[in-house]
Fold:
Amino acid sequence: MLDAQSIRNIAIVAHVAHQQELCK
Structure:
């Protein structure tokens, strides 16, 4: 099970990856 910190970290990584896709 993921704790709040892990969920936050995953959300940040997913957000950054999405931003990079938009910038291509």
Notes: The chain is about 85% helix and 0% strand. The helical segments are 4-23. The radius of gyration is 11 Å. Residues 4-23 form the longest helix (20 residues).
